From TrEMBL:
It catalyses: 3',3'-c-di-GMP + H2O = 5'-phosphoguanylyl(3'->5')guanosine + H(+). Residues 23-275 form the EAL domain. This is cyclic-guanylate-specific phosphodiesterase. Keywords: c-di-GMP, Cell membrane, Hydrolase, Membrane, Transmembrane, Transmembrane helix. The keyword Transmembrane helix applies. Its EC number is 3.1.4.52. It is an enzyme of class 3 (hydrolase). The lineage of its organism: Bacteria, Pseudomonadati, Pseudomonadota, Betaproteobacteria, Burkholderiales. It comes from Achromobacter seleniivolatilans.
Length: 277
């Protein structure tokens, strides 16, 4: 057995070593990518059914690595969370949004959705991070929407709740992102003061032209209405999906049918074309 045990031991030691080297270097890679301006923000318009126009955007991070191309955001975001880099990365994103907003001419209360990771939501620095951002974009006076996941509510630290209370009192709004995909959080929904439910695209894409029933989606919409939450449907790609959702009172529609995420330089003319004269 000895050779096997030795091999295994060596393998494990090597694996752990390699992991550690990669971990250190990934953190470094993120830091240097921020310095080298490799991150960019794409903005996806959100359509408001009541007004019939674009009511806001969701800010989505993009990492264009020289020689590699775009890295999938869910992958580098998850890695940044694991490496405790998500807070600096989000702070960096806020700086990029501030810069972009200087070139926009959106009306007051135009929604700017920002994804906030659980660790950030329950950190003592969140309130000042958002206050700094609000001060730096005060000229445009946007309505800031923090998109948090069900995971954040379950890992409730008390600090998260306090942050939400303080920020909501200052006009910031909170959306539960990817609703229905996390752990059951119905009891948390009642405890946490939130403003929007974002229905995950998985439920939206269950709406087929064939008219098959979508019981889970229907229950989520009803639940949100009973809780007085506005609903945002994500991943809306077809007209039948749009018609289904708006006929059931879903107020906000986000998806490729209306617009894809785009860099600021594209969003500015897009917005001019899509707002009333
Ligand atoms: P998310 O917050 O659920 O963002 C919505 C995702 O759906 C985006 O993917 C968007 O491009 C995509 N999407 C929008 N409309 C459609 C559609 O009609 N059809 C389909 N199939 N997809 C659509 P993206 O940009 O790849 O981002 C993936 C995830 O990465 C995000 O999911 C979010 O969880 C995370 N993420 C992105 N940017 C940030 C960020 O700045 N901070 C944090 N914490 N997470 C981020
Ligand atoms: Ca989101
Ligand atoms: Ca989502
Ligand atoms: Ca998602």
């Amino acid at each position: 057995y000895l050779p096997v045990a030795l091999l295994l031991g060596a393998g494990l030691a090597y694996g752990a070593y390699r992991l550690q080297v990669n971990r250190l270097s990934f953190k470094e890679q993120l830091r240097s990518a921020m310095r080298a301006n490799e991150f960019q923000v794409y903005y996806q318009p959100v359509y408001g059914h009541l007004s019939g126009q674009c009511e806001g955007v969701e800010a989505l991070m993009r990492w264009n690595r020289p020689g590699v191309g775009f890295v999938r955001p869910d992958i580098f975001i998850a890695a940044a969370e694991a490496e405790e880099m998500i807070i600096p990365l989000t702070q960096h994103l806020l700086r990029l949004i501030e810069r972009d907003l200087q070139t926009w001419s959106t009306p007051p209360d135009f929604h700017i959705g920002v994804n906030i990771a659980p660790e950030h939501l329950s950190s003592a620095g969140l309130v000042s991070d958002i206050q700094t951002f609000m001060a730096n974009v005060a000229a445009r006076h946007p309505l800031i929407v923090l998109e948090i996941t069900e995971r954040s509510l379950i890992a409730d630290s008390g600090q998260a709740r306090q942050n939400i209370d303080v920020l909501r009192a200052q006009g910031v709004r909170v959306a539960i992102d990817d609703f229905g995909t996390g752990h059951c959080s119905l009891s948390y929904l009642q405890k946490f003061p939130v403003d929007y439910l974002k229905i995950d695209k998985g439920f939206v894409q269950a709406i087929q032209d064939s008219g098959d029933e979508t019981p889970v989606l229907d229950v989520i919409i009803t639940l949100a209405q009973r809780l007085n939450l506005a609903v945002v449907a994500e991943g809306v790609e077809t007209q039948p999906q749009f018609d289904y959702l708006t006929s059931r009172g879903v107020a906000f529609i986000q998806g490729y049918l209306f617009a894809r995420p785009m860099p600021s330089a594209e969003f500015v003319p897009w917005y001019v074309r899509h707002s009333p004269p």
